[in-house]
Amino acid sequence: MDTVITGLGTVSPAGLGVEAYWEALVEGRTLIAPIPDFDTEGFHVHLGGKVPGFDPYERIEGRFVVQTDAFTRFALIAAEEALRDSGVDTSVDPYATGALICSGAGGVEFGQREIEALWSEGPDRVGPYQSIAWFYAASTGQVSIRNGLKGMCGVLVTDEPGMLDALGQSARTLRRGTSSMLVGGAEAPIGSPFSLACQVGSEVLSPGVDPTTAYVPFTEGATGHVPAEGAAVALVERADVARERGARIRAVVAGQASTFGGIGVFDPGGEGLLWAARQAMERAGVSPEEVDVVFADAVGLPKADADEAATIRRLFPKGVAVTAPKTGFGRAYAGAGALDVAAAVLSLEHRIVPPTPHVLDAPFGLDLVVRVPRPARPRTALVLSRGMGGANSAVVLKHPEHA
């Protein structure tokens, strides 16, 4: 039974909505800038990908704003767009639709404010929503409440692979009888000193101060990646349900697989990523010759980049187009895999492979799309993702005409 994507929503450093996100990707726009919310002196990280001009009260009811952190607000907005785009009316059968939204950081900014109130003014000044707003599941819970969803709901606490893993888990949920699922990832990890401090110990963030050179994976100048915030949510359905209601199918989720490659910053040697990619392709029933574009994980660390490049070369000995559009705005942890999936869906739809911003050539023997977008007619996209600690995931997406 096929799982299909019929709705898509994004919040990114390009702004709110899929249209703004896709325009920025095609243009290869630089969306990385100095972190604006606090003085980063004392940190070795100074740049980030920030959602611009975001006022939650313009898009979300006040009762939800006061009890949520920014990562949940991003999920609420992206989910609203995905539902609207899909045309699914969740009021007809609230039990037919569930939600599975991922996060790795949770509501750290909200938590910092409440901890400051505790230490400066005492426990009476800690708000009642501290117990829920920081929690990783807050995004799934608030999306469910706001949209009246009573189907299967859950959360994956994970790094970048979250959305890919959630697509696989949701496919199994759909096979058990659920009609549709809101699946996504959301993060807001750069809005407070505490949230940034939680990341710097990993030694994977770039110390660069030039937005055009700070995050340049697959190059000799790679020194890590730039953190970012954002979210993407997809409405996935059983194909038969989508076709019965005459929905527009944006992409088919043809295959997904995950591995744990061992304790370490990232999967050592890339064997886990290779296995996940091969299994995803096998489950999708596609050969290497049928994959037209790979959306790379692109950590920005020399060893991790070399391992990923070697994996891609082993998977595709005859070559394949590779891109990493996130270099234009940074890695948003659980939101990054979600935004990569959204980029792959849009690439299949628009018949264009977006470029890898700031990377000017194609090293490691990769056919990396650089400088300008590449017109193409991609039928199948492979999205690769790795997370801190050794998690790997891969998903194969197909254009509906070729499913």
From TrEMBL:
SMART domains: PKS_KS. PROSITE patterns: KS3_2. Residues 1-399 form the Ketosynthase family 3 (KS3) domain. Keywords: Acyltransferase, Transferase. It holds the Pfam family Ketoacyl-synt_C. Belongs to the thiolase-like superfamily. Beta-ketoacyl-ACP synthases family. This is Beta-ketoacyl synthase N-terminal-like domain-containing protein.
